[in-house]
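=== RUN LOG ===
request id: a7f3
mode: sequence -> structure
chains: 1
length: 486
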Amino acid sequence: MAGMYPDNENLELFGEAVSWPGVDGNGKFTNGNFSNPAEPPSYIPAQTINLILDNLSELLLALGKTPNNQSTNQLALAVTAALNAEAQERTTADQNLRTAILAISPEIDNNVQTVLGVLEEIRNIIDTHKIAVTLDHPDASVVTDKIADANVTAAKLADGAVETAKIADNAITYDKFQKLPNNTLLGNNSTELADAAALTAAQARALLNVADKNTAYTLTETIIDASNLNADNYYPVTIKLSYAHNYRIEVWSATWSSSSSVPKKAWMEHGNGFTVRKIWEVTGEGWGTINNGRRILSSTYAYANADPVRGLTQVMQTSDEIVYVRGGGRYSFRCSHGVVPVLRPSGYTWTNSGESGSCPIHTSNLIPLPPIVPTLDNLILTGAPRIIDANGSSNLIAVVAAASAAKTVDLPVGSYILAKFTVPPSTYTPPNVNSVRTVRYVNASSPLHSYECNSTYGSGDTLSGTWRSCGIFYADNGVMLLRRTA
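=== RESULT ===
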């Protein structure tokens, strides 16, 4: 228990162990057990009695009294006197305060009830505010700092409450738009103000006044950027076609207009780069379903040491239109019917139904990549052959205009003829220009007398004299322009 109670000490008296002064287990004095002499009562040591008397004496002294050993109520009288003195002091202080207040303002006494009434009114207002269903805070009193984070739910926003002016610029991301059905655009194709709606492809074309891709030449631009590729190489560009459409393809230099961002290469001969323009129409062969009917409408270039766009052909098995572009340039391809050209910086390999082939990268040795030459629909050269379209096909057949026997094998020196040779360069490397060629006259039984300069088309009578190649043209098969020089 400790405190003012003494602690037990174990003593031995007359050979018997005694606990003195014998406080119980709680540390307090006990009367013992009158039924059990083995549990004696506790003793009160003199030290404990002295401690009690010393404390009472100090209390009387603190209350301003002198302790004695005779009076039995001295402590009660001292405490009562102290309490009465304190009460008298409070009463005197209250009277003095009231007298001071009345001396300063006599009206205060009369207004006490008024003040108490105001306080009561304030208390009633506060109580009403605490139980009010609708908050009665003054306008603009609820500031942002007083709203807990993530505490405003959708249910707390009124319909139409979020105005455009309250939405931060660039704050609405694409994934927040309503999902649209496939092949649709978001717009309004009505004649009046209306909400945006998902438009079908037909509705979008009508709105934009754009014709269907199956019936009109709407050209879509794709930039083929070969500016970072080897400027000494030509790279294939593939365009996947269908035999169901007649496509229009245009190529223009995209380097000229952006020379500041595309470094000039050695083969470019102008400070701004180079120019090139190729325009042709073609259809997909569909593995022999139809002839590609390619017509070269325009082919020209300038400010380049060699034509940067050339080697036009098509993979019959896959209907891949192939054209080569030179590394170092940027090219604008504009194609109809939604087809997209693809640059093949590592070359192109195709496979279809067990057949395969490749269109590799070519160096600036231009022999495998003939130039793109405008289609000759009806060319007549004096004393030379003319090109016609036999039986509605695009196979080019050379015919001598003169009506003499010389039109077969004995043409005069200076004559020009067109002769067939092999197939496009995907499987054949054409001969050098100005090379001597052996020319044969074939198909003698037909009025369309043809010439060829290899054995692909069968045998025939060899033309007399020395014939040199002057140029090469590709349609479905190769065509070589030759001149008799001796």
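=== NOTES ===
Residues 220-363 form a domain with the Immunoglobulin-like fold (CATH 2.60.40).
The chain has four helices and 25 strands.
=== END ===
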